[in-house]
Amino acid sequence: MIRKSHCERRWSDGLPRSTRTKSRDELFFHPTDSTATEVGTGVSLLPTGIDAALFRLPILFRRVYSSRFFAVALWVTIAGVFAALNRPYRGLGRHRMNSSPRMGMDIDIDQSWMETGQVVEARAPGKVIICGEHAVVHGTGAVAAALNRFTVVRINRPPDHIGDEGYLSLHLPELEVRLKWAVAFLKEYFAPLSLSEVNPLSTGGSEEVKKMVGEFVEIQMIDKGMDKGASGGVEAFLFLYLSILGLQPLEAVVTSELPVGAGLGSSAAFCVSVSAALLTAARKLELGSGESLWRDIIGTGLDLVNMWAFEGEKIIHGKPSGVDNTVSCYGHVVHFKKGQITRITHPLELGMLLTNTKVSRNTKKLVAAVGERALRHPEAMAAVFKAVDAISEEVVQYLQSPDEAVTALESQLSPNGEERDLQRKYAASLFMSDGMIINTSKTDGNKSTPPAPKPRRPRQLTRLEELVSMNQGLLQCMGVSHPSIEQICQITSGFSLCSKLTGAGGGGCVFTLLRNDGTDILKLRHQLQLAGFDCFQAAMGGKGVQVGYRASILPSPLEV
Ligand SMILES: Nc1ncnc2c1ncn2[C@@H]1O[C@H](COP(=O)(O)OP(=O)(O)OP(=O)(O)O)[C@@H](O)[C@H]1O
Ligand SMILES: C[C@@](O)(CCO)CC(=O)[O-]
């Protein structure tokens, strides 16, 4: 543990702060985080025991060098150094290792939740909606898969400052937002909410907190000249922080591999990772054991994370269905309907090309626009939603039994032998049980796969491709497609591939199902890039939210 007296000693010993702790601070914070460096330096993160031992080593050596206890002293010193090196993952200073894998039980703290220098991280994936977006808000089913791209939250307790109550700092590099408030100021502002006794296990937080946070962020936005888009993220963060941790001093940095506001569920990944990190800090989650730096949340913890993340999503989206936070939380592939979640148990790692139109749009507005269209044309839109629901059901069937799907396709379309082989190979490639990502480009070297025969054109669509195309047509009916999306669909259909928008539409990202049949993906990418779009390949169906807990002196799981 880092005791206050120890901190004071290090602060007043006359050495320049920056030289002493720079490297640790760089691991701790975003390197450009000048605010954080300014306030975060000067406190040694070494535990008292190790620190003292290191200072005393030379004296110890002089005293015992010629004595008959030299060998024993040397042995003790080496053992001490090894113990110190082995310690960070078990926590610094006062932390006790417990045989229980339960995170909360690992940490023995006399402070409210975590000690200075400890770091909690959480990462949550983005998502792709295979079918059913928008209609799902109106009660029909959607099928969504977790992406292998993540948002990562890193939180820590800032160094104690004698005589004040510390601060809350929030750095959102993706939105170019950096905010900092004294806890004393927040306590005064939010005094009417009596936040001294928060209960993260309660359901959903209070509307009062939401309202007051909304007003607070509006004032802050004007004061700090913040962009409108940023306010949703800041508001959701503050609501979750106040509801889960109360008013504890905290530093938080959120980085992301997901484009923000592009249909890949960046807001859900943000809310899920923030909720998981705060609940871990509040010692309300049980984590799986294991050697991995990222640990699974076990027991009912995921439900708790999902519940809070949904509350955050409501702040950003207005009226979310809950599908995005659900898939980001639980991972894999899920069928979601009216809050009912069914995991599609096939270990699916589906290769796809994601193309970003770079046209910005806003989920909240698009969801509202579809709602208004449904009010204007209730019967027609009800039929559209019903058709989407049927598509989702069929996609589930397909995903659960791709073999049956191929057989059905064979009997319906009765292609010749060569075509049938291609269909079989395609279905098999989507469901490789060994977790391999399908080979999506000529240059990706899965050497054991024989070269696929060149497809004849025009080629039969597989059942999944057909369903995905139909859904894209229905999204057009809902008014959420965009000329840039249509252009991408046209380019990819030139390669006999099938594409669909994902998420709210109106711009954002489009996914293209890839085949393991020798289609020239490089050429396709080149054409899309020439048209001004960004492309990247991704895999679907991976893990949901995970947590990493560590002492600050080790690099982040992302950095190793
Ligand atoms: N890394 C992040 N840091 C801070 N805020 C974020 C981050 N990612 C998303 N947000 C918040 O979420 C908003 C974007 O949410 P929006 O729902 O419009 O897009 P999306 O979730 O990427 O797309 P979709 O809902 O269609 O999948 C941002 O304006 C911001 O308020
Ligand atoms: C457009 C929508 O259906 C998906 C956004 O990713 C909204 C929602 O379900 O909350």
UniProtKB/TrEMBL annotation:
Polar residues bias spans: 439-449
Keywords linked to the UniProt accession: ATP-binding, Cytoplasm, Kinase, Lipid biosynthesis, Lipid metabolism, Magnesium, Membrane, Nucleotide-binding, Steroid biosynthesis, Steroid metabolism, Sterol biosynthesis, Sterol metabolism, Transferase, Transmembrane, Transmembrane helix
GO biological process: sterol biosynthetic process
Domain of life: Eukaryota
Gene Ontology terms, MF aspect: ATP binding; mevalonate kinase activity
EC primary class: transferase
Main subcellular location of this protein, as a coarse class: cytoplasm
Domain GHMP kinase N-terminal: 245-331
Compartments it resides in: Cytoplasm
The keyword Manganese appears for this protein: no
A GO CC term assigned to this protein in UniProt: cytoplasm
EC number, as in UniProt: 2.7.1.36
Region: Disordered, residue numbers: 439-458
Chain ranges passing through the membrane: 65-85
Catalytic activities: (R)-mevalonate + ATP = (R)-5-phosphomevalonate + ADP + H(+)
Pfam short name (any one): GHMP_kinases_N
Domain GHMP kinase C-terminal: start-end pairs: 461-517
Keyword Zinc-finger set for record: no
Pathway: Isoprenoid biosynthesis; isopentenyl diphosphate biosynthesis via mevalonate pathway; isopentenyl diphosphate from (R)-mevalonate: step 1/3
Family assignment from sequence similarity: Belongs to the GHMP kinase family. Mevalonate kinase subfamily.
Official protein name in the record: Mevalonate kinase
Organism: Riccia sorocarpa
